[in-house]
Structure formats: structure tokens, C-alpha cells
Sequence to fold (847 residues):
Amino acid sequence: MPKRNQIIQTPISTATSHSDEESMTEDVEKPFQPNSELSSSSIFRWCFSIKFCLSFLIAVFILFGVVIISAVWLGTLIPPNVVLSQDVRRADFNGIISKISRTLQEVELSTEAMKSQMNPLLDFNDFEKFELALYSAYKYDFQKTQGLVKTSHFGDNKGNGIGMTMIPSMGPILFNFTPAQAVVYFCNPDFDKYDHCKRNAAPDMVSSSGSTADFMNRCNAYPNLSSWFQSFVMETSVNFDTFVNFVTCFKLDVPDAKGNKFRQFFYKSLTVVSFSEYLHNMTMTISGSKSFIVELGTDYLLAIDKPDVKMTIKNTNGKVERKTAITVEDEKTNSVAKYIYTYLNNNLSSLTCNTHVTIESSTDYISMYRLCTASELNWLFVLSIPKWNYDKSIIIGVLVAIGCACIITVFGLTFSTVISLKIVKPFYNLMEQFEAVSNMDLNSVKVHSSKFYEVNQLQKHFLDMIGMIKQYRAFIPAHLLSQIEQHNSGAKYETTSTKQAAESKDELASRGQASHAAESSSTSDMNKSSLKRLSSKLSNVAKRNGSNMFSLFFEKKKITHMLIHMQGFSQILTQVENPTSCIEFLSQVFEQVNTVCRVSGGLIGGFSNDSLTISFNSSSDNAKHIEKAVQAGKSISEKLASKLKGTDTKKGQNSKLSNSQTSFRIAICSQDSICGNVGTNESKSFTIISNASRNLEAMIAVACHFDTGILVSETVHQTIQSLYHTRFVESIPNIPDDEYSSLEWTSSLAGNSSSLPWHFGDISSHKSSNIYEVGELSAHNADEWMYEMQEQEKKAIWKKYNMACKYMLTDHDLSQALSLLQEFSDEQHGTDKLALHHIEKCKQRIQ
Fold:
């Protein structure tokens, strides 16, 4: 067996310290430092992400475009719409005013025309001739004004008068006034059939004469003036109809003896019912509008757009009462009138004549026009239209614009989000892959191909880099890979679930469960770990270990060492023609060892000749490292044995290798050692300074000679004896933990021989230590009685052997020990070399 140094080293790694390089030169570029705000705050990370910036920029452009377009069309639409609304309101209002004022003007003109026509015929003594002319003129006037003119009357300054009126239920009526009486004739109701009053010769009614004093007084006061009288109510009518009179006078050149300044007068009476009907027809075409006419001076209503609303009623006292715009029984009219009276300080006459005035209430546009004429007509026209009629187009347009803007904005935001996610997705994928690479988790790297050319090229170069890193990864120090893989697998994951998983795994190790169960549990933990937590886990490792992972340091700690010896490997090398043929065999061995060490936290050391070293609790803290080392040894032994059997079915060189007498011997010891990074800042390696290699070699020599399984030192045995079936093997010299020199051991090896196949010199300072072989697990599941019976049988295999060792070592009863050893050897058909050795030893001591 080749000699080993007492210093066990991992493969050399090269690392560069930024701090040292900066101290040597000032020209070295300062290393990148991530923004602490972006790293610590999720809000900062989100706000300063490419995804957010892209979405924000696209959304801003869309919103800016929507605002500009909306401002343009609103700026071009609203002013013309407002002007158009005003024009439409004024046109509607002017239609009402012009219609009624034109009708009144026509009445005035027709009155003047009749005055001129009838002037030569004004002879009250020639009644028949005057009657015929009056009937023809009245018929024409009545038909032309569509019944608006109800009465036409001629009178003189003596109290005489002739006139006609129309009563709907009776037809045209002719009356003749004298100061003494009034004679009434009923004309034929068929007004259109006759051109004269078809009546009886005798009067149909004779009554007292009516008073014409108001007209006479007006003509005496203003003989040259044609004017309108204030409205009055015909109390004898069924509906208390309201009338207005227009009077014109025949002036005398010289006042007569009684002082009269006129000779005759002529007046017409008009009903305002037709005005209400006209207002009704006009407002019917304007939704929600309200219109009425007020007579200034009396403030009485002359017309309203609701003909069924009573403007004159008989009160409880039996008197006729006329209504104003405030007192009429119509809420809309009342509200509009109150607003107007408030606006004009209860003085309607303060409004300028013949001028349009528009005011706004909270709900309506109110248009007012005071009609003033030379004929003393003084009426107030009012038209109220809801603002909604004109503003609805603007409001609907604005709402539609807002709705469309919202739709465009939502679509834009959705589109921008989708686009940004589409663009950023491969970058996030690369970020995750870079994070995996930074944690050396190269097996989980999976790049999703992007359709963007630049990203595709970046992914291509990234994959090329991964390929190179995978090649370099094989030369990274094993302890670093071990730590990274341990933390990647979630062994030290600081969450409740992973702590429970770790505790469960430790419990399995302490109870000595099957190694494959521990491996599957650890593999499950490793699969549950997320790439997104790798950086934080590694940073936690750095905080726990300080800067020891990458700095030069030494520390003394208890380390469990394992030596795996490939017995027969030298024969393999001599059998093959090309040593390269052994590569596949060794790769299979290392594959199994790596798998187990990744789970148990073992650090694979160097491979020398035919032996491989593994240490536990060296590069990183490993709880229950002794139990894990033994468990790992059992698992490695089983896997390698299974692998050798599997290769028997293969052909060619592999079959040749497997058919050779190759077996694996494992020795485990635990002792104080010194470990750490040595070298320089530019080139350093992890080193374990210990004499464990010499102790392990001695144990391996015993294992090879007696063809045993896993051998452990006495220290290890004390820890695991309750977990595994064990048996005493032999006592061999043990180098103390605090002796690290290999010269003393080498020089002390002499040619002294004994009954053992190995040779130990006279090393008085090295006391002997017992070594033990590890068998099956002693723990079992009580619920599975079949396994319990099998385990009890396994335990009974070494029962006699262990009792014999007890008699031999403790009780010094060699005879009893020899008897039990012979029984045990017979049960094993003489194949147990260790039992045969102790039988021979007992016989020698008995003699």
C-alpha cells in the first residue's frame, strides 16, 4: 500500500481577491457593487425593472396621445356646439316671439285697413248699409286670423255703436248700441255660406246698453294713437277667457261742442287662448321646455304652454281671480318665474325692451324677451329649456370619449404589459439561469428560446458559457462544490418546512435507517429548493462562516475521516492494455460516491493510487457527522457492490474489469484535525492536517486481511453502537490526534513480525485502540413484524462472537471464549477469517 502524507488536500483552486489586488495597484477597476436600495426593497426592484419601465413608457405615450386627441376634438367641438346651442335656443325663442308679434301686427294693420275702408260708410243712421259692410269686413278678418279676432266694434262720441262678435256655441252675432239700449241679432251659424248676416228682421235680444267710456276716454286723450288696452277677463264666458283690445280713433280736426277730440273709434277684441295653443305646439317639439307670456304692469299670465292650466279661476268668495306666473298651478312655471323674479329683483319692467336676455339656472337655460311697441304693447316672453337638451351631445361625447379613452388606455396598458412581459421574459429566464450558474447549479439551467435576435444571440453565448463552465466545474475544489450543493439541496434552508425536513433526515441518520431512504428524502428536499433562494442561502452561508470559504485560515475541529480502498485495482491496471479503459469504471465509482456525499455532506478528498478519502464536518459544519459518515459508508458500500454486479451483464472491457477480483474496503475514524485554506491569495487549496490517513491505512490493512466490511475506530464505535450491529475486530496502534509528523511513524516501521500480516515497530508512545466492524442497522419498525424477525436473526449472527470477545477481553475466560468462537465458526462453515484468527489467538494464549 502506498505511503501517504499527513496532509490531505483538495484539488488546487485559483481565486483572486479584489482587496489584495487593489492594495497592489491603484489602476485596477473597482468591482461592481449592486444598488442596495434596489436589492433590499421589492418596491424599488419593481419600479426600476425593465418590465415596469417599458409598460410605463408605452402607457404614458398612449395616455399622452389620448389626451392630445381628446383635447383637439373637444377644443374643436365644444365651442361650435355651444354657439350652435345658443343659436338654436335663440331661433326657437325668436320663432315664438315673431309668430305672436307678427300676429299682433297683422291685427293692427287689418284694423287700420278696416278703419280706412269703413270711414266713408260710418253712418249710424243707415244701419243696413253699414251692417253689410261690417259683416263682410268681420268675416274676412275672422277667417284670416283663424278666429283670433272675436269682436269688431265701431262707436261714436255720442254712445252709439255697431259691431259683431263670435260665440262658438251660437255663431256670429250682430249688435247695435244706442245710449238707451242694445239690440242683438243672431246671424246664421253657417258663417261661410252667406256674405251678409242672415237674421230675423226683429231683434233676437234687447238689453241695456254697454259702456264704451274707456274707449272714449282713450280717444279723447290720444286721438291720433292706435293702442292696446290691458287684458281683461270675460266673466260671462264658461272658461273665463282672457281678451285684449286694440283701439284706433277717428280724430276731429276741431273738438266739438262737448270737447270731444274724436268722431268715431274702432276696436278689436282678441282672445289669448290661441297664443297658449301656439306655445303648446312650439314647446312640444322641445323636450322639457316651458314657455309663457306675462303682461307687464299687471304681472298676469296671458298665455302658457299648457292650455289646460287655468289662468283665471273663481275663488271661494265667488270673485274671479287671475293668476300670475308664480301663483299658477304649474310647478315648472312657478320655479322658472321665481328664478326670473329673483334675478330681476321682483321688477320685471327693469328688463330692457326688445332685447334678448338669457340666464342660467342650475338645470335650465332661461330666455327672456320684453316686447315693447309704439302701440303700448308691453309683454314679457319666457322660454325655459333644460340644459341637458343642448349639453347632452357634449356630455355624451365627453363620456364616449372618456369611455373610448379608458378602453384605449386599458388596451394600451394590457398591450404594453404583454409586450413588456414578452420582451422581459427571456431576460428573467436568463436572470434565473445566471443565478443558478452563480450557485453552480448547472444541471437546472434551462433557457427558453427567444424570437428576438439580440436576445437569441445572448442566449447562444450564455449556453456556450455554460458549456465551458461545466468543463471548468470539474476542477473547482470539492469542498466548495460540496457546500454549494448542500445549500442548494435545502439542507440548511431556514424555513419551518425545511428545518423539519432536515430534522427528519438527521433523525433517520441517528436511528440508522436505510441509506436509500435518506437519499430520497434529501433528494426531495433538494427538488423543493427554489433557484430564487439560492443567493440568499449562499449569503447566509458566508455570514455563518465569515470569510473562511475564500480566505486563508486554519481551525481545529473534530472531523470524521473515511478511506475507501479499491482492493484489486492494481490487478485491473495490469490486465488492461490501455489505462484509459479504467476511466469508465472509475467514473461509475465516483458517480456513486458523489451522489452519497452530496446528500450526507461529505467532502471528497484526493484520489491516490487505489484509495479515496472523504471527510465529514471539515469544510462546513455537519451535525452528527459521525452517524452520517457511517451511514454514507454503508450506502457507498451497497451502491458499489450493486454496481459491480450490474456490470457483469455488460460485454467487452467493462466485463473484464468487473470479473477481476475487485472489492471495496472502507475504514472510518473520527479525531481532532486542523483544516483550512492554505497557499496565497491568488492560489489556495483546502487542506486537512491530520494523522487520520495512517490510522485509516492500518484499519484498511486489517479489513483486507480478514475480508471484513466497514471498520470503524473506537471513537466512532462509541457513537454508533446503539444504531448498528457491530463486532470487535482487533486492537491496533493508534497515533494520537495531536501528532502530525509522518517521519516518526515511517521510521518506526520495522521488520518486526507477529501473528498479524502487518508490521508495527516499537512505538511506546502509541497506545492500542480497538477497531470494530459495522453490520446491519439495529433499529427497526415495530409495526413491520416481518422485518423485525429478520433483524433479530441478523443480530443473532454476531451474538456468540460478541460474547466470546467479551470473555476474551473483559472476563479473561479464554476457554469459554474459545468455545463460543468455535461454535460461531462452525455456524459460518469456517468462512469467517476473523473468528479463525481469534480462535488461533486464544489457543496460543491458553498454551
Observations:
- The CA atoms of residues 4 and 791 lie 39 Å apart.
- The chain is about 45% helix and 20% strand.
- The first strand starts at residue 7 and ends at 9.
- The mean pLDDT is 78.
